[in-house]
Amino acid sequence: MPLLECEKMAGESFPRPFAGVDEAGRGCLAGPVVAAAVILPESFSLPGLTDSKKLSEKKRLALEPLVKSTALAWGIGVVWPQDIDRMNILRASLESMCRAIRVLKIHPSFLAIDGNQPVPLDTPQRTVVGGDAKVPEISAASILAKTFRDRLMIHLDARYPGYGFAVHKGYGTKVHLEALRAHGPCRMHRMTFRGVRQEEAPKERSLCLPGM
What we know:
Blueprint: H1 3-12, E1 18-24, E2 33-39, H2 57-70, E3 73-79, H3 81-87, H4 89-102, E4 110-114, E5 125-128, H5 136-159, H6 165-168, H7 174-183
Parallel strand pairs: 1-4, 4-5
Antiparallel strand pairs: 1-2, 2-3
């Protein structure tokens, strides 16, 4: 069965209008976590719509304006590194989703959340593991979250040069880790994340041979 037919079936049981919700940047060492919420009409045409991670950057950028023009409503939510460190990344991801939902110009009757964690809102909802490849509203949200965050990281690269944000978008690549070792973290880094925080130096005993 074609993917879009499967996606349509996955969303048909949800009360309308319902919003698909997804986030981007959860596993990064730097930059915010960004979520998007999207309400699509019952009938629409968005060829190639699927999980943003399965699409090339060119395809994501081509779909972004189509999603926005097709959607009945869409919203973006952002949580910055200082709040990520204060809350922890799970709570920050859920908060970014709540923020995206709250700015929708249409109040959704139901929420379809990518993953297995519900958001702390009273709106009826269902979590969908792998939902960004099953429910078109979640697929659309994944594209808006990813393209918005990528664009933001390119902007932050100009403000915080030397880390390569425009290339790796804050993920823990070899280049990024080498830049962290050379320059130390900046304000856009998540100080509580392994790879950013300065690990305690090995104890002297680890430098000795057994029995010495």
